[in-house]
Design goal:
The protein has 233 residues and is α+β, with helices and mostly antiparallel strands. The protein folds into two domains: 171 residues, q2cbj1_9rhob like domain (Jelly Rolls), CATH 2.60.120.620; 44 residues, no CATH class. The protein has five helices and 16 strands. Strands 1, 2, 3, 6, 7, 9, 13 and 16 form an eight-stranded antiparallel sheet that branches. The chain starts with 7 loop residues before the first strand and ends with a helix. The model has no long low-confidence stretch (mean pLDDT 94). InterPro entries: Pro_4_hyd_alph_FE2OG_OXY (IPR044862). Pfam families: 2OG-FeII_Oxy_3.
Length: 233
């Protein structure tokens, strides 16, 4: 039996026309700034132009559209890997027969109706801030092997990241894969496809340089809600 690598790709998560609209909006906005890593602008590690759209009212509609596309992918991911939720948290649901509370089990995810998955996911997770990024042909990339956890920010926000995601907004160029170190797997960009993978060091990765054309992505994380919300009362 082939062991899972916990890297999932969902095709057609975002329609090609919406991908083109995001790229056009990016180019017309004039908002792009040099991309940052955790320690700031370091183009030898990450050479990109980025726009953080979260919190900007002008981008609110597109942010919502991206988050909705990711949420649909997240629910598919949870059905495949239910321990994403139930390993870190002991959740309870009403038993469908008796109505009495019981522990949520991995086997439940095969039969839970869609609205129940919606409610559980929304109660536990929250979206991260979204970046739209451009990597110039034959120049840009994110060659530094990295994961999405680091204990730098005082609020420990990065330590709440449980999954990373990327929606590829275009293709038609060479290379430019998202490469995972330990899994020895390269994800080739395809317009509208959604990549979801764990955020921890086990899924250390890098973004290879695109060849012959610019690469555009939307990217962020799925975070656990903070403990004050999850365990209030």
């Amino acid at each position: 039996m082939t062991q899972p690598d916990f890297i999932e790709v969902y095709e057609e998560a975002l329609a090609p026309a919406r991908c083109r609209a995001l790229i056009e909006r990016f180019e017309a906005s004039g908002q792009a700034t040099p991309g940052k890593v955790g320690s700031g602008v370091m183009p030898e590690l990450k050479d990109s132009s980025d726009i953080t759209i979260s919190g900007d009212p002008a981008w609110a509609e597109l942010e919502g559209e991206l988050n909705q596309a990711v949420f649909q992918g997240l629910k598919r991911y949870l059905r495949t890997f239910p321990y994403t939720l139930i390993a870190p948290l002991m959740l309870q649901i009403p038993d469908p027969v008796t109505g009495t509370p019981r522990r949520l089990m991995a086997e439940d995810f095969a039969t839970l109706p869609e609205d129940r998955i919606d409610g559980i996911a929304q109660a536990i997770f929250r979206p991260g801030g979204i970046n739209i990024q451009r990597y110039r042909a034959d120049q840009g990339g994110y060659p530094y092997w990295h994961c999405e956890h680091y204990p730098r920010d005082a609020g420990c926000e990065s330590l709440h990241r449980t999954l990373l995601w990327t929606i590829y907004l275009n293709d038609g160029f060479g290379a430019g894969e998202t490469e995972f170190l330990y899994q020895e797997r390269c994800i080739r960009p395809r317009t509208g496809s959604l990549l979801i993978a764990p955020a921890a060091f086990t899924h250390t990765h890098r973004g290879n340089r695109p060849e012959g054309g610019d690469k555009y992505i939307a990217t962020s994380w799925v975070l656990f809600k903070r403990s004050e919300q999850l365990f209030a009362g």
